[in-house]
Amino acid sequence: MKKKKVKLRDLKPNSEEQHSHDDGHNHSGNSSKIKAYIPAIISFTMLIIGIGLDYFDVTVFKDWIRIIWYGIAYLPVGLPVVKEGWESIKKGDVFTEFFLMSIATIGAFIIGEYPEGVAVMLFYAVGELFQNAAVNRAKGNIKALLDVRPNEALVYRNNDYMSVSPETVEIGEKVQVRVGEKIPLDGILLSDKGSFNTAALTGESKPDTIAKGEKVFAGSINMDGVIEIETTKEFKDSSIARILDMVQNATARKSKTELFIRKFARIYTPIVVFLAIGVTFIPYLFVDDYVFRDWLYRALIFLVISCPCALVISIPLGYFGGLGAASKNGILFKGASFLDTMTKINHLVMDKTGTVTKGVFKIKAVKAIGWEEAEFMKYLMAMEAQSTHPIAKAILEYKTDDRDFNASDVKEIAGKGLKGMVNGKTVLVGNKALMTANHIEVVKETDTIVESIVLVAIDEKFAGYVVIADELKDDAKETISALHKVGVKHIMMLSGDKDSITQQVASELHIENAKGGLLPEDKLNEVDILKQNPENKIAFIGDGINDAPVLAASDVGIAMGGLGSDVAIETADVIIQTDQPSKVVKAIKISRSTRKIVWQNIILAFGVKVIVLILGAGGLATMWEAVFADVGVALLAILNAVRLQRKKWS
C-alpha cells in the first residue's frame, strides 16, 4: 500500500517531486490551503441539500434528477480518488485504498445508496486533508532545519565583498556576516568575538559567545555586530549540510513495526477484497432468501471498513513525529529503527572524558605553603607561560591582578617539569620526581591525591602545589540519577584515563561499575562480554572518535558529537548536538513516547475494524459505521500521533 503523502523525497529541497505529492497546499500560502478544501465544501453542501430534499420528500427530487444531483456531489471528492486508483492499477499496484474506496462508493451508487456513496467519499477526502495537515506539521521540525540552510554568502573577492551562493565559496576565503544573518559555512572567527543563536541546530535557546580563532558553524545566526570568518569547509561538507542529510534520510531506516505494517497491508488488502467477493456470492449457496443487493451492500461496507489507511499513515507519522521532536531537542536519530531500539536499553556504557566531563583541565585546588596564594601563583604562572602543555594552559587561566613576574633561563627537564629563574629566585615546577632529584621534601598529603598535581619549589624549599582536574559537566550527576529513574539499571564507565581518576569520577556520580586505563580494544571487549547475554540491550555513549569500534558494536551508539564532530556523525546511531549527557535521558523518553503512541494506534485501528467488520458481514452495520471505522479511526490515530509534536519532555 503506498501513501504518497509521507514519502521521504517530499522533504528534500531539490527534489523535483517536492510539490507534486502534497496536494499543492503546503507551499503557496493560506490561499492554497483554502483552495484545497473547496471540493470537499462543494460536495458537503450538495450532500446536505440532497439529504434535506430526501427527508422532506420533495416531488421534483426523484429518479434521474436525484441521481444526477448526487453524481455531481460525488465528482469533486470522488474523481481525484478514482483517477489515483486507476493510475496505481496501470503501475501494477491494484490493491490500494484508492481502489477500495472507488469500488465501495461506485458500488453504493449501483445499488441506489447515493447519499452514502457521496458521504463515504466525502469523509475519506476530508480525512486525507487532515492527514496531509498532520504530516506537514510532523515535517515542520525537520523543514525548519531546511530553512536554516543559508542561501547566500558575502565573500571578499577583488577588494570588495560580493554576494554569491555558499556552494561556490572555497576553503580559506573571508566571509562577512551581518547582524541577523546566518553563517553560510563552517569557519574560524576572525573578529574579536561574536554572539550566535544556534537554537535551530542544537535546540538550545541561549546565545553562544565565541572568541576570535574559535569555530563557528553554518546555520548559526549572528546576533551582535558585523563579523568576519575564514571558511574551513566547503558548503557540502559543512556541519549543517551533513546534519540535514542525516535527518532527511532518517525516515529511510524504517522500524521493524513500520516494515511489518507495510508488508501486512500488501497481504491484508487483497485478502479483504476476495473476502468481500465471498460475502457477496457465497451466501447464495447457504441462504434460502438470498437477496443479491443486500449481500452486495454488506460487501461494500466490508470494503470500506477494510481500508488500512489508519495504520499505513498513522504509524509512519508517529515515528516521523518522534524523529522531528528529537531533532527539535538537539538529538539526531539516524533512523526510526533506533527509536525502537532505544526503548529497550537496559545497559548503558559510557566513556568518561568528553562524555560526563568537559575534557578540559581546570584548577581544582591551590595549596600554598609559606606563601600568599596570589604571590605563589605568580611564580608558577611565570614559569608555565613558557610551556605549551594543556596543564600549563589551565594554570594560566588563574585570575591575577598583576603580571610583573617574568621567567628566564627556563629549561624543560624531560618527564619531570621545568626549572628556571623568576624575579631572581630559582623555581622548580613539575612532578614528584623533579622534587626528589633536587632534594626537595614534599608534604605527604600529596601522596593521596589522585588527580594531576603540579608541585612547586622556590629557592630550594617546597612552596606548595596545584591540583588540576577535568571538570564534570553541569548535568552529569542529574543524568545518572535520571537514567535510573527511567529504568536503566546498569551503568558502567569505561575510560582510557588513569584508573584512580576514573574511580573517583565514578564515585562522584554514584556509578558502581567503572574501569580505567583501557585501550579502545579493551572497551570493545567489555561490551562484547555484556553482549553475550541476549537479554542485555546496550547503549554506548562516547565522543565518536576514539570509541568508534564500541559505538559500532553497541545496539545503539550515542555520540557526544556536538556540531563540529564529523566522526561522530559518521559513526554513531544517535548524535547529541549539545554534548549534554542529560539529553540521553530525553532521547529515551521521546523513544518510549513514540513507541507508546504507535502501539496505541495499532490496537485502536485493529480493534475497531475487527468489530465493525464482523458487524458489517452480519448485516448489523451500515455505511455510516463503516465510515467511522475507516476515516474516523484514521483521524483518531492521526490526532494521537500529532500529540508527539506538542509534548514536552522534562
UniProtKB/TrEMBL annotation:
Q: What is its main location?
A: membrane
Q: Which InterPro entries match?
A: ATPase_P-typ_cyto_dom_N, ATPase_P-typ_P_site, ATPase_P-typ_TM_dom_sf, ATPase_P-typ_transduc_dom_A_sf, ATPase_P-type_domA, Cation_Transport_ATPase_IB, HAD-like_sf, HAD_sf
- First-level EC class: translocase
Membrane-spanning regions, if any? 36-58, 64-82, 94-112, 118-135, 267-287, 299-320, 597-617, 623-642
Record-linked SUPFAM superfamilies: Calcium ATPase, transduction domain A, Calcium ATPase, transmembrane domain M, HAD-like
**Entry's EC annotation:** 7.2.2.12
* Compositionally skewed regions (Basic and acidic residues) per UniProt: 8-26
* Subcellular location(s) per record: Cell membrane; Membrane
Annotated keywords: ATP-binding, Cell membrane, Membrane, Metal-binding, Nucleotide-binding, Translocase, Transmembrane, Transmembrane helix
Q: Which reaction(s) does the protein catalyse, per the Swiss-Prot or TrEMBL entry? A: Zn(2+)(in) + ATP + H2O = Zn(2+)(out) + ADP + phosphate + H(+)
Domain P-type ATPase A, by residue range, is 149-248
The family line of this record is:
Belongs to the cation transport ATPase (P-type) (TC 3.A.3) family. Type IB subfamily.
From the Swiss-Prot or TrEMBL record, give the protein name. Answer: P-type Zn(2+) transporter
Query: Taxonomic classification, please?
Result: Bacteria, Pseudomonadati, Bacteroidota, Flavobacteriia, Flavobacteriales
